[in-house]
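Chapter review: from sequence to fold.
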Amino acid sequence: MTTARDDLAKSEAILVAAIEVNVPELVVARTAIGDFQPMIRSKTARRLDKWLEAARQSLIGSFAGGVEKDLNALRNAIISPWPNGQTEGQITRLKLIKRQMYGRAKLDPLQARLIGAS
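The token string follows.
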């Protein structure tokens, strides 16, 4: 569903085409999935509402529902010029430290470990 048709092997492309002939809903879902990534990468939030309408009616309706719940956050992430890599890195670091503490990650020991680790 997420692999571009050009990247499929010939046998895979034939299989996908055969499946899509018998399950036309997959064509709509594949199109919606294919439209989502370029919209995010090109930072084009104006197409988000139109995409949500189409996606809600397809097989990826539950994903569209999740996107709709966080619509403001997603819209801000699309239009914001600032990356969130630094934030994600800090969250990953925090989770790593919590895992290393083997269930002893209550607030006080975790705070002491984080302040000591900085």
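Two observations follow directly from the output. The mean pLDDT is 84. Residues 22 and 89 are 44 Å apart (CA to CA).
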